[in-house]
User: What shape does this take?
Amino acid sequence: MEVVLATRNQDKLEEIKTLLKGLPVKVTSLNNFKGVPEVKEDGRTLEVNAKKKAVQTSRFLKRLVVADDSGLEIDALGGKPGVYSARFSGKGATYKSNNAKVLRLLGGLPISKRKATFRCVMAVADNGRVVGIAEGRCSGKIIFKPRGRSGFGYDPIFIPDGYKKTFAEMGLRQKNRISHRSKALVRAKAVIKRYVKRYVLTF
Assistant: This one.
């Protein structure tokens, strides 16, 4: 059975494929298909966006699809950037410009006032029907300047609670043990495993 990851982001793809190893499925992404319509992520929550991507993409491809929406929620910014994390710095946003905007908005706030939570919501859908939802969280803090070259997004400015390194300094293996995406994927993996088992038994 084939599972399609509803993303063209190569960084995210490699991270998710690593975490889905061990499932009796072939894992592909939107990069393997032509003509898949872009899904407008205009929901007000991560869950709404994840469901929308999973449902619309699975209906088009007639395959099992896993879609996620992730966001960084910073206490001092009232939960922003949140659902707007990928485009926080405006049109043409890049990882670097998004990080720069967060650091500018936080200014000289002390580390005790720089608490943040990474959230990831994953939706699993088949032929336009949601078959499971999973969520993962990772709490930490925003440092004063970027550190590290691994990872992507806000990884260079986020240090998870209990650690001294940013996600970007850890490397993929260590990050995958504790990240919001890995926690969501553990739960999503269980959903996929149960669904595949039922599918095999049915057919």
Observations:
- The chain has a mean pLDDT of 91.
- The chain is about 35% helix and 25% strand.
- The two ends are 12 Å apart (CA to CA).
